[in-house]
Structures are given as C-alpha cells and as structure tokens.
Amino acid sequence: MARGESQNGNRELIANGLGWFSIGLGVAEVVAPEKVAELIGIKGRNTSHALLRIYGLREIAAGVGILSQNRPAGWMWGRVAGDLLDLTSLGSALASRNVNRTRIGTATAAVLGVTALDVLCARQLSIGSGQRKVATPPSAGRVRKTIIIDRSPEEVYRFWRDLSKLPTFMNRLESVQITGENRSHWVAKGPAGRTVEWDAEIVADEPNSRIAWRSLEGADVDHTGSVTFERAPGGRGTLVRVEMQYSPPAGSVGATVAKLFRAAPGQQIEQDLRALKQVLETGEIARSDASIHRGMHPAQPSARAAIA
C-alpha cells in the first residue's frame, strides 16, 4: 500500500471513530441529559438539561455528517466549533454555585483532549482534500444529461473542444481562457453580480468521441466532468452525453457557489445543451423574452431534441 493511501486510511479511521463517538454522546445527551449533567458535575438545573439536549442533537448531526461523507473536513471543523462551545459552557458552569468543580474540571480536560484530536483530524482531512483523484471527487452533486444534435460527432466535438466557444451556449459562463497545455481558466456568473473562477485541465481527449476534465486544486468549484459524442441511431446526428460531479467548498465562497447551483444544476445543463443544439443546427440561439424565466433563455426545442 502506498504511503498516501495509508495516510488517507488512517484519517478515515480516526474520522469514523469520532463520528461514532459524536453520535453516542449525542444520544446520551438527548435521552438522559440529567445523567450527563450529574456526570460532569451539574445538579438540579433544568436549563442545563434543555441545553444538553440541544447539544446532543448537534452531536448526532455532526456524527451522521462525518460518517456519510468521503472527506468530511467540513463536518470535522463543525465538531471543533462545537467543542469550543462546550468549553465555553463548562467555563460558565465552573463559575456557578451548586456544582461539583472537580467533575467539571475533569470534563473540561476531557473536552480539551477531544478538541485537540478533532483539530488534528480536521486539518489532516483539509490537507488531504487537495490530493484528489480524478475518478473519485467529492460528490455533493451529480448531473447526467443527453441530447441529440443533427450534426456529425466530428463537428460537435470540434465545436466543444474549442473551449473559448463554451460561453456561447453555457449561459452562466462569462469566459474560458486557455492558460497552457490542456489547462484553462473559467469565469462564471454568480449571484448579486459576483463571479466564480476556477482553473481546470483536460484529463482525457479522445477525438470525435470524449472529453473529460477536472478542476485544479484551490478552485472555487471542486468538480469533474465529461462529455461524449456518439453517432445517434437512424442517422439522426450525434448523441451528446454530459456527466458532471461538483462540490462547493465551505465558507463565504462556498455560499456563493451554492447559490450559483441552487436552481438545479441538471436544469441548467439541460438549457445549455438546448442552446448548443440551436447554435450547431441553426447558427444562433433562438431567444424568448415572453417567459417566466428571468432574463433571456434558449427557446424550447422540438421533441426530437430528446433531452434526458
């Protein structure tokens, strides 16, 4: 086993252990807050029991999040934030009367130890998230769409392969600039006039057949994708199939990216493919302003487009 794979396995084992620990602690706090309060040295305070139940729900949510993700760095940092909240609450309790200060001190030491482990694991997962494999990106979202275009696979491939032409039919794209061999810089429209940018590289290029790409480390949008071009049956042109996986990051940029994808990415890709069909078949995008949609958009194609 390679060293990187061993490190990834260790990180996952620690994260899974902390996830189960979080769920176990959360269940105890929800089901028996009185016992937990007594264990940490707080007696006869109904307010603290209600607070423990809330903390328990937080712990359960964090545990489920950690166990359900391949690289749960965000959930681990959420645990760190929860640990800090727990330490604040213990500090406040320590200054109160009618508490067992020895038990509170012991509980505080235990939480400090868990916090250190949470921080270590969260940092390792954050670093490891930059060491991505093309075939297994984080999958917060997945899109698969197809359309039939009445043009040959060679013609459709040539048009798509010229990345600078993508903004002509991808509504949210502002520009794509070639920055090196198989590498490019993408700028997309975000909400409230903001833009989202990322660098990408082509990882597979099979002329007239398939193009695959991935975003590079540090991108605002962590994603991979591919487009295939197959000759449609019955001489009807080309079957174009697009597959994408993406994962918006955490933080303010992540919030912007999440808004960028909020209108169902599958619907956006579907509209883009309709626009591509119109560009290749008619030379322009037929647009309509008599619609419930905001702004101009590709008109509805005929049933022959066969988008799926």
Can you walk through the features of this model?
With 308 residues, the protein is of the alpha+beta class. The chain has 2 domains: 3-128, no CATH class; 141-305, START domain (Alpha-D-Glucose-1,6-Bisphosphate, Chain A, domain 4, 2-Layer Sandwich). Helix content is 47%, strand content 21%. The chain contains 8 helices and 9 strands. The strands form 2 sheets. The chain has a 7-stranded antiparallel β-sheet with strand order 1-7-6-5-4-3-2. It has a two-stranded antiparallel sheet with strand order 8-9. It is elongated, with a radius of gyration of 26 Å. The two termini are 41 Å apart.
The coarse overall form would be elongated
Strand order of the largest sheet: 1-7-6-5-4-3-2
Q: Mind telling me the CATH class of the largest domain?
A: Alpha Beta
CATH architecture of the largest domain: 2-Layer Sandwich
What Rg is obtained from the alpha carbons, in whole angstroms? 26 Å
Within the CATH hierarchy, at the fold level, what is the topology of the largest domain? Alpha-D-Glucose-1,6-Bisphosphate, Chain A, domain 4
Biggest sheet details: 7 strands, antiparallel
Class per helix and strand makeup: alpha+beta
Euclidean distance between termini CA atoms:
41 Å
Secondary structure: number of strands: 9
Into how many domains do the coordinates divide?
Answer: 2
Low-confidence stretches: 1-6, 129-139, 250-263, 290-297, 301-305
Instruction: Give the amount of beta strand, in percent.
Output: 15-25%
